[in-house]
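User: What would this chain look like folded?
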Amino acid sequence: MSRSTVREPLFLSVSKKTPLTVHIRPTSTRSTTKQRGAGPQARGTRSSRSLFSRSKTSSQSLHPKLSWEGSTHRLEIHPPSHSRTGGRRGEEGERGEGWEHEREHTTLRMSDLGEGGEEGEKEEEEVECEADEHATFESRIQSLQSEVDTLTARLEEESQRHHQSLPLTQSSIRRHNETGERPGASPEMRVLGQVASLMSSQLERQRREEERAVRQRKEELVRRLEEVEREGCAVRDHVDQLHASLKKLGKRQSTCAVMSQLGGQRSKLMESVTEFKRGSRHLRKLLKQQLDHESCPDHLTRSATTADPHLTLHTQSLHDEIGRREVELQSLMMHTQSLEEQLEKRDQEFTDLQTDLHEYKRKAGQEKEALKRAAKQHRQRAVESEKTAGQLAQELEETRRELTQMGDERTRQDTELSSLSTRVRDLDNCLTQSITTAESAVGAVSRQLTEKTKELNLLQMENDRLKITSLEEELAQTRATSSQYEALSHEYKAQLERSRLETEDAQTELRRRERDLERLQQDTSTEMEKMSEQRVQEAQQRASVCEQRAVEQSRLADELSTKSQLEESQTTVASLQAQLHSAASESRRQQEHIKDKAAGKERAHAGRIEDLESQLTKSNSLNNQLRRSKDEAERLHNSRLRSLQEQLDTTNASRRSMETYINFLKVSYSSLCSEAGAHTAPPFHMLS
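Assistant: Here's the prediction, encoded as structure tokens.
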């Protein structure tokens, strides 16, 4: 397989905002000990070094500087700055001195080619993009694996042809030496010997060309294996990104079982990738050893021209080496088959991951719908709570106005009750004064009566001595006056009876008014208070009238100065006093009832106000809670959207960067191969 049969480059569309500049540094070879000592530090630059290690040609064939500039990109390729005539050991020394400097400049990082991804729309696009990328990587790995198989088959064919042509060349050289060493050889034999030597030289050149072609094919095989390894690294990176995104989704959805299953699948996939890399490194080591040992046939051919005995030994060792190489090629074929099986297993694991991703996508859609419904319900509840809060505020204002009105009414009632209590106290004072005056009048009348009895006794004693005629006249006069007094007493008794009837009428009227008051108490408190006040005033007026009548009766009793009239007046006064006390007690009872009713209404209003305030606080707390839950749901939704957007941006950026990187490497490598296709490539150097 020649260099002209290079794989066609893959053209990808790149954004105009992505500038590209590549500098090719010297890529001299290193010894095997340095390769093993480099370790993980040399792994990072393996991809870029192995691609450009074969670009060294002679100084006469390469230009001092290759540059290409398009509408949006510019490509510059600088030749190595050191001399190339020092040989392989000089190149290795220079390689050891400028290793760190070259490693810094030859590494083409993914961050240099990345650009900010455009904003995605949905989480489903991100998952589909990742699935498409993994599918493309799988297809590339399969294509590279098929190319590796074809290259190994061609390498086996070339080795078989080389084994077949090697005995012919050895026999021709042996015959040439035998004919040349004969002493009596004819000119025809000399001509035949010259022709044989020419044929042997042609065969030697053909063999060298075939060995060069085999070396080139082996280098192409190594390059393909390196590409396969790079694709495997890229697949591992994308698997890591997919695992990170799945871990984030698992943290949001709290599916521990699914995440443990995905973790096991990821560990298996990583083990397969590491096994693939280990096998590829082993294959590269074997190919390097084969390349190192294939320099032996050149030395054998040179020694065959000088010494014939050594030729047989070298050919035997060459046959042994070729047999070992065949065994190694068979082991490589078995290793490639194992790699194919691992790739199939990884494909199955990848399909499982895709199903898990679809399941996660479905669950995420369901959660989104549930969040939308919950947010809608929260909004409706918030609107309803705001309406109820407004209504409760209006009711609270109304109750407060009613409470203020009731407070005003209560103050007015308190003033009225205080005025009534002052009036009752005045009436009590008047009653006590009237009682004291009546008692004093009765005492005076009794004293007068005793004095008059004494005078009467004296008069009787004197009348005994007087004439009987004067006594009879006085007796007649006293009888006339007594009859008059009896008539007056009867009149006073009738008046007292009439006053008693009037008081009974007043009591009945008071009872009727009390019943009316009880009936009207249910209507309005103010009217009841007014009516009670009027009734109390009427009762007080009647009591005052009764007191006046009692005073008049007491005055008449004083004038009559008789015990019967005084006793009757005392009984009437006592009855009137009892009526007055009953009226006062009734008025006090009505006042207390009115106060109790007002206090009950006030307590009811206060309880209603407290209930309304508690309802208002509950509605406010519920509204605040709904608002907080709504804000929390919106914040979680926005944060989740932002995280998904960031994941999509990073995935798109990595995908575009990888496509740009692959496109650029393929284009640059194809241009270098087309420039240096006619010259001999330097010995290939592999990095572990």
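The mean pLDDT is 66. If you want, I can go into more detail on any region.
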